[in-house]
């Protein structure tokens, strides 16, 4: 396992991070705990989750699993993307952030969170409000550092300016989707991360399982697969039977040929591709079983040659996203109320 600097915090994190999105949802508690222990034994020290994953069950399971190994873990969780069924119990208000962090600390069975992240952009709360509250929590020792997820480059720059202007804590990381078929962040986020020394934690390296090669265009997905078990836009992005996905599966077939010629699995090539970008600090993996984690770890030292990277660039050009559903969320400013004059 290789380790990289988490921006300029002085903390080193593993090249792979363990994502908690499956725990309490698609992975049983027993398997989840086994995966977490297996990851720690393999040298993975960054574990990422969110208060919304399985309605908090992911945090609870992680807290249980790392109780005796807390000091070995760089623990990251998120807030701000709660379903919001109850008034004032979601978003980025001072009132809610303070409630949310206490709930996460309780579920995680810890006194502090190493990296507390804003899960998605919040349009009705200023960065000054959010950063002011997070700064107070850092001073109180409840969180160590702060980061973002799913933000655009202009939002990250606005946040940096607010931090400097008001002498508030600075976001040290951004978590964004990135894969061979979803290269949108190469347009601006990767370069911004390098220029402004922001740790870039990327998720979705296998594009929800598409880059494992287990799906075939026109054929129904296995009942136990992620494509069959997910709902909504995420499921549509994976569905091999949808005609609109045919082009995506044609591209994946071409990528599979490249992997075959390079003598590696498509999944290993997909993760190694992410690792090849100098802006990427850590790649978040979301294994559903211990066997899947073992397969990931087996590719730790794989490096793609310039020739292979050049071929991938001809199949999916830099900065291109094959499917807008890969973004997994819709910016608030695309709502009709924000696009039309009244």
TrEMBL record:
Protein name: Aldo/keto reductase
Key word Cell division present: no
Pfam families: Aldo_ket_red (PF00248)
Annotated source species: Paenibacillus terreus
Lineage: Bacteria, Bacillati, Bacillota, Bacilli, Bacillales
Domain NADP-dependent oxidoreductase, residue spans: 19-315
Transmembrane segments: none
Keyword Lipoprotein: no
Keyword tags: Oxidoreductase
